[in-house]
Design a protein that fits this description.
Layout lengths: L2 H14 L6 H9 L1 H15 L13 H43 L2 H10 L7 H4 L12 H10 L19 H12 L1
Helix pairs in contact: 1-3, 2-3
Length: 180
């Protein structure tokens, strides 16, 4: 084994402080370019991680990890609670709106209808059905299309007056469908 190989094996121990150079070894490292380059590499490697080690030291690592896990669990619980509250609040608002529409006071609707100005547009302006396929149709063809429709547009039912056929069971079914 050459002097350079022997010194190469001792360099980690000297760098860690568990051993030291003899006078002959120190003189050889100072005079040999290869040993000097290897010694500077070992010293640089010894300094690696020193700034990281205190932050991630084993002491207290478990408590820091547990604290972060608990904080994450609390944040998840807050998000779930908020999401649940928003969902139930939205469902309650929708149910209240549905009840107001279905069982609103007919006298109030009559008052509103009596005091509101008549803004009903003429039938030709009130509804326009854009069907480019019918632009070039002859009047007889257009009449055939209109005759083929089941119900005139003005006679179809709307949600404003649903009638008496909505029951409490129907409302319960709708609310259960929204919850599920």
């Amino acid at each position: 084994m050459t002097t350079c190989e022997a010194l190469s094996e001792r360099m980690p121990a000297v760098a860690s402080g568990s051993a030291g150079w003899t006078n002959e070894e120190a003189a050889h490292v100072a005079s040999c370019g290869d040993c000097r380059a290897e010694w500077s590499l070992v010293q640089a490697a010894r300094g690696l991680g020193r700034s990281v080690v205190p932050e991630f030291a084993a002491e207290g690592m478990a408590s820091r990890v547990l604290a972060r896990v608990r904080a994450s669990q609390r944040a998840d619980a807050r998000r779930r609670t908020t999401r649940r509250a928003l969902t139930w609040g939205g469902l309650a608002a929708a149910a209240a709106l549905m009840l107001a529409v279905l069982f609103g006071a007919p006298a109030r609707r009559a008052d509103i209808a009596a005091t509101a100005p008549d803004t009903t547009p003429p039938a030709a302006v009130a509804f326009q059905l854009p069907l480019p396929e019918l632009d070039d149709a002859a009047p007889a063809e257009l009449q055939a299309v209109l005759d083929g429709l089941d119900v005139p547009l003005g006679e179809s039912s709307t949600l404003e007056n649903p009638g008496d056929d909505v029951t409490g069971q129907d409302l319960e079914r709708v609310l259960r469908a929204w919850e599920g």
